[in-house]
Specification:
This protein has about 210 residues and is α+β, with helices and mostly antiparallel strands. It has seven helices and eight strands. The strands form two sheets. Strands 2-1-7-6 form a four-stranded mixed β-sheet, with helices on both faces. Strands 3-4-5-8 form a four-stranded antiparallel β-sheet, with helices on one face.
Length: about 210
């Protein structure tokens, strides 16, 4: 079953009811819209930044503090456990999504994905095997901060070029044969909600041992 804001709202209501806090469906939707970066449900529903469902979300920033503030704006006298129940609602209904506490955490997850993908790719590994070295020394794959607000709307993919290198520690007891593999790669990101993206993709365009030594 697809997961949209209505289904999330039913889930949040049920979780809150189990803890003795009654929450109307409309209020639950308002609270969840706030957690996804909107001042109101109407703003969420009319936004071109949104997909019909959240099913494709692989990384999602859920702003539980904004959700709590929205509940206070609605004069609901929200209990302290409400932010946690908002998080758990997303976790229960979107179990494949990685939830993040801030945009910076999401950004960091994407960077880690790129680093791991490049280092473990067969093209990189093949070039690293030519080096008389041991153990990673540096993984330098610079990416500008990922500004979710600047990504195109759902259905359009952002391609980000990356140029950097992966290097190994030198083995002083063996002849030097270079220590750095120059990398050119492309990161692809698609937004599925204002604060969430589908699983990022990466492609190695070039991995070559630096012979300029």
């Amino acid at each position: 079953m697809s997961v949209d804001i209505s289904r999330l709202a039913y889930g949040l209501r049920a979780r809150c009811a189990a803890r003795g806090f009654s929450l109307r469906l409309g209020y639950a939707q308002q609270i969840l819209a706030a957690s996804l970066g909107y001042g109101s449900l109407a703003a969420y529903q009319s936004s071109p930044e949104e997909s019909p469902t959240l099913d494709a979300a692989a990384h999602l920033f859920v702003d539980s503090e904004a959700a709590f503030d929205r509940a206070k704006q609605l004069s609901l006298n929200p209990p302290p456990f409400l932010p946690g129940e908002v998080i758990e609602t997303f976790r229960e209904l979107l179990p494949r999504a990685v939830l993040h506490a801030s945009p910076g955490d999401l950004d960091g997850a994407v960077r880690s994905f790129v680093d791991n993908y490049v280092v473990n790719h067969e093209e990189t590994a093949g070039q690293l095997a030519l080096i008389n070295g041991y153990g990673l020394d540096e993984v330098y794959l610079p990416i500008d901060d990922i500004d979710l607000s600047s990504l195109p709307p759902p259905g359009q993919v952002e391609a980000i070029a990356i140029e950097g290198h992966v290097s190994l520690e030198l083995d002083d007891e063996r002849p030097y044969s270079g220590h750095k593999v120059e990398i050119e790669a492309t990161l692809t990101i698609e937004r599925v909600t204002r604060q969430g993206i589908s699983a990022p993709g990466c492609h190695i365009d070039s991995a070559k041992l630096d012979w300029n030594w």
